[in-house]
Structure formats: C-alpha cells, structure tokens
C-alpha cells in the first residue's frame, strides 16, 4: 500500500506550527485518507526546499524526534576523529603550500598543480568539514542561511578544482 502525503499547512503563515492535517491518497485502494500528524517546527536547518520568509524550517513529528542521538562517549570519539582529520588536513596542506611557495626551486608546473590541490583540500577542511560535522551531530544548522550557501559553494568549488587539477596534471604528463 503506497501513501503519498501532501501537507495542508501554509508554512509561510505559521512557522512554528504544532499540528498539521495531512491529506494522503491510498493509490492501492483508490481512496483518500486524512492523517493527523503532530509536528514540531521549532528546529532549524538549511535545505532550500523548506526555506520560507528568510528562515529555514524543518518539521519533525513530535514522537520521532532525533532518533540518531549518540551516547556521549560515541560523540567524543567522533569529535576526536574529525578534529584530528581537520588538523592533519589543514596542517599538511598548509605545509605543502608553504614549501612550494617559499622555495624558488620548488616552483615547477607539477608542484603548482599540487599547490592548487592543497588549496582546494585546505578550503574543504577549514570551511566545510567542521561546520557539516557540527550539523551532522546536532541535526541543527547554527551558522545561518548565508554560510549554509557558502559552505555548499565551497564544497562544490573544491571538488571541481580537485578534479580539473588532476585532469590538468594528467594532460601535462
């Protein structure tokens, strides 16, 4: 049985709604079904499809909540792993950039391409990974709508820069 639900609530008029009457159509039996789903719209995050009136809104059913809460010791392990990864990635890429740009003999075409890869990786580790990790643990985007867009842009920009730089290195060879 397949239910396709469509909300009957205008989120622009009530951003902190407490209940939503949802109309669904049961395509298997060809009947309409009304479902009463209680929603909690006080949490915010940043998908563009829920963006209304300058604020990001996420609606989760009250009884579901965050079913992915981790125990404190598990979160601590994730913090240590991610912070170690960010420190190594940022530090290592910064050292590569510094070595190539500081020594005149190191400025070959291949090394300039490697600097470009290092810049792209450093951008991801400093401007994207930390903020997305915080969002993944809390399921709450706390950094505003503008930085949400900047973070997405940096992610796509660095992927494109890495791919095109690797292509350029292979063409250069």
UniProtKB/TrEMBL annotation:
Its main location: membrane. Residues 92-173 form the G-protein coupled receptors family 1 profile domain. Gene3D superfamilies: Rhodopsin 7-helix transmembrane proteins. InterPro entries: GPCR_Rhodpsn, GPCR_Rhodpsn_7TM, Neurokn_rcpt. It is a multi-pass membrane protein. Pfam families: 7tm_1. The chain crosses the membrane at residues 76-101, 113-133, 153-171. One of its GO terms (cellular component) is plasma membrane. GO terms for molecular function: tachykinin receptor activity. Keywords: Cell membrane, G-protein coupled receptor, Membrane, Receptor, Transducer, Transmembrane, Transmembrane helix. It is found in: Cell membrane. Belongs to the G-protein coupled receptor 1 family. This is Tachykinin-like peptides receptor 99D. The gene is TkR99D.
């Amino acid at each position: 049985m397949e239910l396709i639900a469509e909300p009957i609530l205008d989120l622009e008029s009530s951003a902190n709604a407490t209940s939503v009457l949802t109309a669904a159509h049961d395509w298997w039996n060809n009947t309409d079904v009304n479902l009463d789903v209680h929603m909690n719209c006080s949490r915010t995050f940043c998908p563009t499809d829920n963006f209304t009136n300058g604020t990001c809104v996420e609606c989760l059913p009250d009884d579901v909540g965050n079913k992915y809460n981790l125990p404190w010791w598990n979160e601590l392990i994730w913090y240590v792993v991610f912070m170690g990864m960010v420190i190594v990635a940022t530090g290592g890429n910064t050292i590569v950039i510094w070595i190539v740009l500081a020594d005149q003999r190191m400025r070959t075409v291949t090394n300039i391409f490697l600097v470009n890869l290092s810049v792209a990786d450093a951008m991801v580790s400093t401007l994207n990974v930390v903020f997305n990790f915080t969002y993944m643990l809390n399921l709450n985007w706390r950094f505003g709508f503008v930085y949400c867009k900047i973070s997405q842009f940096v992610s796509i920009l660095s992927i494109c820069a890495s791919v095109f730089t690797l292509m350029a290195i292979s063409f250069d060879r």
